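Recall that a protein's primary structure is simply its ordered list of amino acids. Everything else, from secondary elements to tertiary packing, is in principle encoded there. The following example makes that idea concrete.
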Amino acid sequence: MQTNWHFYLLLIPFAYLLGSVPFAIIVAKAFGKADPRTVGSGNVGATNVARTAGKKAGAVTLIADILKGAVPVYLSFYFSMPSVDVPLLKISPTALLASLVGVSAFMGHLFPVFLKFKGGKGVATACGVMFVISPTATLLSGVVFIVAVVVKKYVSLGSMLSAAFMPVFLSFLPSKKDYVLTGVIIAVLIIWRHKENIRRLASGTENKI
């Protein structure tokens, strides 16, 4: 039976478009609050929504942003690729598809077509992507996040550290080594998107929780 490659390839743009949905703006407006781009840090993420529209709105945004990363990756596993060799990349076709779909959803949040490619920092969406790929590595990264935030009181620092540790944890899980590069790409982009936070951390002006 011939493989329908077009179907698998459609998951990639679908993931990007879903990742591009600005749930922060939708949720803030649903709660009767201001567009998060115009208040607080100006970031279209759950943290800014929580600070400017309330904890409930922030929690809804967080869940929605996690799901828009998790759902397309879950679908890529559900409609798993047939067993074919990928000699150049030396990874399984299933891992290749899940990685491409996951990175596409993540990039959609960072560079959303619906917001003229000006998006958020991608932490929640990355969490959704990586949780479907490896719950164990994601939970371990979550521990890193919690410890960093409890000790230092900086959400941004916790986010960057948890992202940086994700590929490390993946590398120690034999069945997840195909996803280490995906973890590295996401970690680098998350840290890059936090460049303003890094400057504020260095100058001591970053907001604490």
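The radius of gyration is 17 Å. The CA atoms of residues 80 and 160 lie 31 Å apart.
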